[in-house]
Amino acid sequence: MYPFEYTRVSDTKDALTAGRRGGRYIAGGTTLVDLMRETVERPETVVDISGLPLDEVTATERGGLRIGALVTMSAAAAHPKVRTLFPVVSQSLELSASAQLRNMATIGGNIMQRTRCTYFRDVTAACNKREPGSGCAAREGYNRSHAILGTSDACVATHPSDVAVAFAALEAEVHVLGADGQRRIPFADFLLRPGSTPNREQALRKGELITAVEIPALPRPLASGYLKVRDRQSYEFALTSAAVALHIRGGVIREAKVAAGGVGTVPWKLPAVEQHLVGERPSASLWAAAAAKAADGARPLAHNRFKTDLLKRTVERKLRIVGGTK
Amino acid sequence: MSPQPQAAVGAPLSRVEGRLKVTGKAPYAAEHDIKGVVHAVIVDASIGRGRITSIDTDDALAQPGVLKVIHHGNAPKLPYKDNPASNNPPDGRRLRVFQDDKVLFHGQPVAVVVATTLEAAQHGASLVKVAYDAQKPSTDLAKAKADKPTKYARGDAAAALRSAPVRIDATYQVARNHHNAMEPHATIARWSGNKLTVWDKTQWVVGTQTELSTVFGVPADSVRVISPYVGGAFGSGLRCWPHTVVAALAARVTRRPVKLVLKRRQQYFNTGFRPSYEYRLKLGSNSQGRLTAMAHEMDAETSSYETFTESVLFPGQMLYSTPNVSQAYRTVPLDVNTPIYMRGPGFATASFVIESAMDELAAKLGIDPIELRLRNEPSEDESKNLPFSTRRLRECYTTGARAFGWDQRRAKPRSRREGDWLIGMGMAAGVYDTARMPAQARILLNADGTAVVDAAASDMGPGTYTSQTQVAADALGLTMRSVTFRLGDSLFPPTPPHGGSMTMASVGSAVLDGCNQVRRQAIKLAVEDRESPLYGVEAEDVVVRGGRLHTKNNPVRGETYKSLLSRNKRSHLEAKGSYAGPAAKERHSFYAYNATFAEVAVDATLGLVRVRRMLGVYDAGRIISPKLAESQAIGGITGGIGTALLEHTVTDHRDGRIVNANLADYLVPVNADVLDIQAIYLDGEDREADPLGVKGLGEVVHVGVAPAIANAVFNATGRRVRQLPITAEALL
Predict the structure, then answer these.
(1) Which residues of chain B does A113 touch, with a Cβ-Cβ cutoff of 8 Å?
(2) Residues B548, B478: contact at Cβ < 8 Å?
(3) Contact yes or no for B673 and A124 at CB 8 A
């Protein structure tokens, strides 16, 4: 680990000042410290924001939810409003990491977490994300866990977060605070596809601080849920996952929100699947036909070809569970 | 056993050191508080093969706290004398740290940074700049050239296969596995003049002692190795690895005690592993399922500098009655570090293949898998023409079938479904040889009626502390509390490696012998002492219970050790117990056995496998410590679930890098993967095996687990997966 300075801030103004000077924000530290130990991350200054008052879940006037950036994963998952209004969010959080990590890690940190690509995390390997221009060892290397969607020649790493998949499905917004004040970034724009600059991962300007993630109001009743497919039962990143929310009224699907995880360089919204569902009546054949579009555009690699098929099956399964089979 | 009443042996006791462990008071290798200790961190080679062309240490040395960077350019030349009395493979030349510029595998130690703090050493290590002349390594088992095979043959397997009415011919692949114990490998080394003391994570203090003495060219009695607690090892502690030498070398160069703890990532290439195999097996049988031939061809990885072999041939020679057997076992030298034994070494790999193929044969013939095995049960060890000392595999099958509900299994695959899940049952036989080696122990009975028993030994988790105390307590006629068993110090009487399930048989027999001697000394003292109530009694009529000697028929007539020894002005009684090992020419064939059963659920569309329940039934001779034996079964089966479904060390063949050298990417089972494990140990003992009648159990509990699961997956899905681990992509 490279030596670094540590400062602790107690109001957002001080945080922004420190952030503008190049400080890296740290809250739970469950990712950043690991990466510092591996010398992947070498911040000169670490700014501890865990004392900022950003740890509340509040209902918005229109029926949505605002989750403070410093709400821990476990607190967010267990919050009664999250549980009742958006089970998909609770489930995605509870299927993540381990209980110990969920108690430490925060919502803001979770969506900022960096890829689990082992070549990214090994400083002796080529990685354009870690060291622009050095190449991508994963593309021709061992890539079972890597992305099949949204990849580029420069990078094929998956975004590891589960809750970000739920946020992407629900079309959440990220509230950020910077020198120029507050702004809201649609989730679809917040995490960046790698393109030729995989080192740029979020649409944040220098020193900007995430204050909350807001889930918009959605028509009720809304059934939702998250399915995570992985080799072992717990404590593993997704091979594939699906976040599904359906508004069904009068036996017809009026709204459908669907996204996939474990397969994209960013959480992968599935508009073609959503469009196929809206206006239709739930049926086994509908789920299959909609899910058949889940892997459109997939570009599998040597070791993750199975993900194309597995993704469709994962989406189909979760549509059936959330939407019922009638 | 002794004529003593058995109060402790056979009782389901908890670990005697359990409280120390759960309260954090049991010091593991890195936790010994050594005054003035400094910290060492190894720099790993970042190429898979080649030469070091330069090492730039300026930035590292400029860091505050960094004392020294040692590498091949400045390290002292070490004698590295031969060490036949070790687990170093006999063929090859062991890795000599910092003795030349050659890189033999990715991750090989190329330098070590010593600093006053761990943080400074770690940072310093990341600043050492090593330049290489890199070559492309050869790390792919399927593409490399094999050594000449080791062969075995009886009868004519090729001819018998040609004429067999029913044949199976299949190739199986077993992934490389790493032990991944919780405790990382760690060493603290301290020199005083020419004397070296080492606190190490090891399963064999004697082996580490001889290795360090030969590497540094000092007499063995100048090296003391201390290892009282081991946080799991599963075989990774059976050799003294290069990092232990690095720690001792760094201590010598810096003239400071040095602590070196391998990072999790570094365990993957500084210590050994279970080698991957490609294993082709052909079976021939008649139409009733009687085996007529078995032909085994196996390729196993080893390093370019040492030829590692393990006991992968025995199961194919003795598990089933077969007149014609051929075996060819080829090691394949690769640019990797040297493998080592891992739980059930050899046997577990062979059993996956043989037991999978037997299941394939059963399916082909339409015979129940247990019935097929019963039809091929041998009446003697056909590889040695010797009778089995004890072989109760039939009882394992029948007991297990009843307890597991085998009659609920549907013979036709893919015929039981619960919602999205396909349910299947499978079973396999397991076998592991009953190894015994010479061992010694020292017994001291104090005048206060307490005893101390010392043996070099080790306790990597199976419960050596507890089970040896049980043996000693009964043989001395003391309570468990009155006996202290000490281990893990090369100053104690020598013992064999703590592996191969031989500790109970070997060390236990030495402890038993020594305790019997001490008890007899005390009895002799009493019956010849006019002032003793036991004066004149026949020695064999005296037993000891709870520290009190009395006649068998009249417990009132007697006295305590304490009164006997104090009256006779004896501060203590002592003896050296010994066990000579098995006879040079054995008259029996000795193995422990199991039948292992698995029930799995496989998601019909997502391909996920979940082990719903498992049962092991064991023929392991006398069970000294039932509670710890059950723990061993739980651990062995859990490890088997890992081998079957999760564990796979992945190498990037382009440069020899291990790409999943961490516990997020190398998956081991978590609690949620291990739902229901039951163990049944058949009552009994093996009177021929050793004085305690034990056959060893820590290894055999792991053997047969992976094939039982694979066979259950076949029963659930109709898919025969011949490659471990079985992951979703094979079942989609």
Answers:
(1) none
(2) no
(3) no
Report domain A223-323's class.
alpha beta
Q: How confident is the model at residue B1 (pLDDT cuts 50, 70, 90)?
A: low
CB-CB: which of B606, B665, B673 is closest to A233?
A: B673
Under a CB-based contact definition with an 8 Å cutoff, are residues B451 and B444 in contact?
yes
- Section B723-732 average pLDDT: 97
Average pLDDT of the residues in B573-581:
98
Determine whether the interchain pair B652/A141 forms a contact, defined as Cβ–Cβ distance below 8 Å.
Answer: yes
Classify domain B277-435+586-731 by CATH number: 3.30.365.10
CB contact under 8 A, B732 and A310: yes
From the candidates B17, B599, B630, B699, give the one annotated as an active-site residue: B699
pLDDT at B41 > cutoff 60:
yes
pLDDT average, residue stretch B27-44: 98
The whole-number pLDDT of residue A62 equals 87
Pair of tokens at residue B93? 């030349």
Domain positions in chain A: 5-48, 223-323
Q: Interior CA angle at A76 toward A75 and A79, to 5°?
A: 80
Mark residue B537 as left, alpha or beta (left: phi above 0; alpha: psi -120 to 50; beta: remaining): beta
Angle at B598 (CA atoms; ends B697, B433), nearest 5 degrees = 25
* Contact status of A287 with chain B (Cβ, < 8 Å): no
Interchain proximity B728–A239, CB inside 8 Å? yes
Residue B402, token pair as written in the block:
């009843």
Instruction: Tell me the chain B residues in contact with residue A236 when contact means C-beta distances shorter than 8 Å.
Output: 664, 667
Domain B32-135+182-232+237-270 classified CATH 1.10.10.10?
Answer: no
**DSSP conformation letters of B419-485:** TTEEEEEEEEEEEEE-----EEEEEEEETTS-EEEE-S---SSS-HHHHHHHHHHHHHT--GGGEEE
Q: Is B686 left (phi over 0), alpha (psi -120 to 50) or beta?
A: beta
Type and span of the H or E element at B657:
strand B657-658
The CATH number of domain B18-26+437-579, selected from 3.30.365.10, 3.30.70.3340, 3.40.630.30, 3.10.28.20: 3.30.365.10
ipTM of the predicted structure?
0.97
Give the burial class of A180: count Cβ atoms within 10 A of its Cβ; 0-12 exposed, 13-18 middle, 19 or more buried.
Answer: exposed
Say whether pTM exceeds 0.95: yes
Q: Is the pLDDT of residue B664 over 70?
A: yes
Instruction: Tell me the per-residue pLDDT of B83-127, one tens digit each, with 9 for 90 and over.
Output: 998 999 999 999 999 999 999 999 999 999 999 999 999 999 999
Percent of chain B with pLDDT over 70: 100
CATH number for the domain formed by residue range(s) A5-48 = 3.30.43
Return the SS3 of A19: helix
The question of whether B729 is a catalytic residue gets the answer: no
Stretch 14-73 of chain A: residues touching chain B, C-beta under 8 Å: 39
Helix, strand and coil content of chain A, in percent to the nearest 5, comes to 30, 25, 50
What's the pLDDT at B2? 72
Q: Which residue has the tokens 């739902």?
A: B675
- Min Cα distance B549 → chain A (Å) is 55
How would DSSP label each residue in B290-330?
Answer: -EEEEEEEEEEEEESSB----S-SHHHHHSS--SEEEEEEE
Q: Which residues contact B377 (CB under 8 A, 6 or more apart)?
A: B320, B321, B393, B394
**Among the partner residues B606, B672, B727, nearest to A234 by beta-carbon distance:** B672
Question: For residue B3, what pLDDT is reported?
Answer: 82
| CA A81/CA B727 separation, integer angstroms | 37
Q: B171 vs B45, B301, B416, CA distance in Å?
A: 34, 16, 28
Cβ pair B678, B403 in contact under 8 A: yes
- Fold match, A5-48 / A223-323: no
Residue ranges matching CATH 3.30.365.10 in chain B: 18-26+437-579, 32-135+182-232+237-270, 277-435+586-731
